[in-house]
Every structure is written in structure tokens, then in C-alpha cells.
Amino acid sequence: MRFGIYPGGRAADVCSRPADPAAIDRLVGELAGGHAFVVREYVHFFGDEQAPELIASLGAADDLTRLTMPDDWYARDGRELDLVVSYLPRVADVPGWLTFLDTVVDRYGHLTRHLQVTLEPNFPVPLIDGSSPGVLDALVLGVPHARAALDRRGLHDVPVGFSVAEPAEWLGGDDAFWAHLSTVPHADFAAHVDYVGLGLYPDAFAPVAPRGTPGDAASLAAHALDHLRGHSLPRAGIPPEVPLRVVENGSPSGPPRDERAQRDSLTDMIDAVLDRREALNVTHYELFSLRDADSGSPEPTGTLGLVTDTYRPKPAFAAYRDLVHRHSSPVPSVRG
Description:
The structure is a single chain. By secondary structure, the protein is an alpha/beta fold. The chain has one domain: TIM Barrel (Alpha-Beta Barrel). Helices cover 35% and strands 15% of the residues. The protein is built from nine helices and eight strands. Helix 8 runs parallel beside helix 9.
């Protein structure tokens, strides 16, 4: 199993203070402990009719200049850059999107070890790609386009995938999304998908059952994986040989819960993922996130971090570090 994390301190438009590169380097190094470790980052496409206030709120003005850390940081010490290219235009602009994918590959391809095309296109809420006009075409055309862009640059070993949000019931139904994919010829889309990611936040935005009972965070995480593999992916013609990845998983520590409850929830959910890794071909787990976006915020998105917004470790930090060290390969991967 490969483990990883988003190292920044932003959740959508919530961010209380700038990132501290020295603290990030120290904490990510402690989590990785000499193992290969995935680092997740995000860049955004806004189209020609850009909204300056939206770009500023997402901290996306410098996406193509730099990520959270300097370029060379992502290529050292067994780190693997997992780069998400998010589609957020006000009006549909698939030609512009495909050109943007080329630009992203030109800028970051030499660093990228995993490329995700769109962010949760089945999830129609603000600031997530599923709310954007033309997102289905952006996904279906974007995946093979990104594959071709990487191949032209000799980056044949960079897998290309997409992510979806946790299961249909929680979303109020995503049947239309999978129904659309079921109509796309296999050679045009599914044949180009190297992995499918799952965004997993079962206890972040709605109450769940008490720990250890049916309907708790662990059982909901297990259900999300089972439902995606057993029900949704077959509709899109994506076979069991295509790996699943948990590309985002988080649990807040803010009221009415506390930091210990966050630790317990995360460890229970990770255990549920590990229990299914062989049966469901789950190969990666990435946590969202290293740092709180705003430790004083009443919103769940503010307190998803393993450390506070001043980089004080919470109990979940040590718990995740120990899980990574116990279940990862000790040999860093090497491209090629």
C-alpha cells in the first residue's frame, strides 16, 4: 500500500494563514519515515470567463507558477507527486480545458507521478467539479487527452485517473453520472483509465452512528469502497484490474467532537480500507490533510488536519505516522 497526504493548509476557500514550508518538510518527513510517500496537490482550470474573486478564494492565482512547496522538494526522498487538475469554469469550455491539460503537463509533467483529471465530477456542489458546466465531457475527453500528452513527452509510466465522491446515497444519487459513462464506448474512455480514486468523508458533514455500531464511520467507508467496486465501476466498463485509490479521506476535530475522536475515526476508516485492499484492489491511501485550514472555524472543512493551523500535532498525527510505517514498503520508488 502507498500512503500519502495533501501538505497544504487549504480546504476549498478556507485558509487561515500561509503555509510554512519548513514545518511541512519536517512533518511530511516524519510521516513518511523513509518510505515512498505520495504528496497530493491541486491546480485549477477556470476558463476564459475567469472570476478573480473565485480564483483568489481558492488561492489558485499562482497554480502554474508553484505548488505548496518548491519543485525539487517533490522529487526527493521517495516523494511522489499526485497532481489533480480541477475543472471549474463558469461556462463549458472543453477545448480550453484540453489546452490547459497540455499546459499542466508541460509545466509539471517532469515532477508528476500520478495525474488525476477532474475532481469528483459526480458531486454537484459549489467549488467541486461536478457543479461545472460541461464536466462530463471534460472527464471523458480529458482522460485520453492527458494520457496522450504524457506519452508525447515520454512520461509513459505516469498513471492517469479520476476521482468520485463517496457513495450514491450520501450524495442523494449519482445515477446520471454513471449512466452517462455507461454510454461511452470502452475504447474512448474506460480503456484509458489507469485508476479510480474515491473521496471519502463519511463523518465530516453529517452525523454517523457511534463508533463500533452499524452506520459508523468505518462501516460507511467500507460500504463506499464496496459500492464503487461492485456497483458503479462495472457500469462504466472499468474492470477489477483497474486499481482503486482512496485519494482523499478526512475527519474533523472541531465541535461537537474533539481531537481524540478524530484520531479514532481516521484509524477505524484506514483499518476498513486495509481490510479490503486485496479483495477490491485498493493500492493507495491519501489523507486530507496535513494541516487544518482554520482550527478556529466551526465548519468541518476547517479542522480536517493532522496538525492545527499553527502546526501543533494532534493525536491523529502519531496514529497516521505509525500506520504508514507499519504498512508501507521501506524502499522509495524510482521512476522508470
